[in-house]
Amino acid sequence: MLTTDRSAARAPVSVPTARRRVPPAVAVAGGVAALVVCAALSLALGARSIPLPTVIRALTGSDHGPDATVVTGLRVPRTVIGMVVGGALGVAGVVAQGVTRNPLASATTLGVNAGAGFAVVTAIFVLHLARPVEFMWFALAGAAGAAVLVHALARRPGDVDPVRLVLAGTVLTAVLASWTTALMLASQRTLDEARFWLAGSIADRELAVLVRVLPFVVVGMALAVVVAPSLNALALGDEAAHGLGVPVARIRVLGGSSVVLLAAASVAVAGPVPFIGLAAPHLVRPLLGTDHRRLVPACFVVGATLLLAADVLGRLIARPSELETGIVTAFLGAPLLAVLARRTAR
Q: To which protein family does this belong (predicted)?
């Protein structure tokens, strides 16, 4: 007995230590550098690779050859649109996870993207729309309707169950996907117009489409910045947030509105690109912690980087053809969702 006690006394004591995080300035600089690299690759790589000096001369206006025309006329709009769409999806994801207190929440898993996509395909089927610039209001209506329906399905007396939110979003996504497929099979014209858009892509998009949806992105981003401090309190639970003076219901409405606006704008431009909003917050939190005042701008940068990286990868995989960005993100994001679901269960 004495020997055991002495052995225990000599045994090293394990003291839990806080995870050492990267200084915010270093993390931000790294994220911006990664975004710049992905933007440069987006301008240089494609069906035909263009040397970086030629890209720089095209951007400065000192080169007007065929390669420069490809850069300024096709790849610059594509890159700018990819940055805005990816950033919007990243912010929508972190706000969705903060509002629902569920690490699996995003515009994809909550059915918001599916609602926007179904509404746009319905508009193509009924109104014979053909241009993405015409999709915004239908995407907004579909996203808002899906968000309200998922919230209603997940609501319980006095609270909203975070687990039921994702379950309701998954069920609604499956239902809307089947309805969308039925509309496309009922009309060859709808199938031709919608199938590539539904795959999720920023190819052949004009800056006029981005200009049309930019006000919605700006308002959605502004709402995300406004609710960010309150999301920190909301993470403690509704009762604790109430005790700290946070208007929980109002914050959920404003945060939900931010997610709907950002997701609808993204879907209107690029189609339903999955998993960007799910992945971005999980990449940022280990570096910057859980303060949403830092997470919101950081997720914009990371979301933009992820989408541009996926778009460049899609160009290189099937060269000289291209693989749609949404297919690449779905292929890479599905294993991520499985890992996150397993970690959340533990």
A: Belongs to the binding-protein-dependent transport system permease family. FecCD subfamily.
Tell me the helix, strand and coil percentages in the chain, rounded to 5.
75, 0, 20
**CATH number belonging to domain 79-345:** 1.10.3470.10
Tokens of 249: 């219901």
Residue 25: pLDDT above 50? yes
- Please classify residue 131 by burial: count the beta carbons closer than 10 Å to its beta carbon, then call 0-12 exposed, 13-18 middle and 19+ buried: exposed
Average pLDDT score over residue span 248-267: 93
Distance CA 248, CA 250 (A): 5
Query: Phi and psi dihedrals of 128, rounded to 5?
Result: 60, 40
Rg (CA), the chain: 22
Residues 163 and 286: their CA atoms lie apart, in Å, by 23
**Residue among 311, 315, 314 at smallest CA distance from 49:** 315
Spans of all domains in the chain:
79-345
Distance CA 197, CA 218 (A): 23
- Rounded CA separation 184/174 (Å): 15
Q: Which residue do the tokens 């005790």 mark?
A: 243
Does residue 227 contact residue 254 with C-beta atoms inside 8 Å?
yes
pLDDT in tens, 83-127: 999 999 999 999 999 999 888 888 988 999 999 999 999 999 998
Whether omega before 320 lies within 30 degrees of 0, making that bond cis, reads: yes
Distance CA(219)–CA(20), nearest Å, equals 35
Phi, psi of 155, deg, nearest 5: -75, 140
Q: What is the largest CA-CA distance in the chain?
A: 87
The answer to whether residues 104 and 278 touch, using CB atoms and an 8 Å cutoff, is: yes
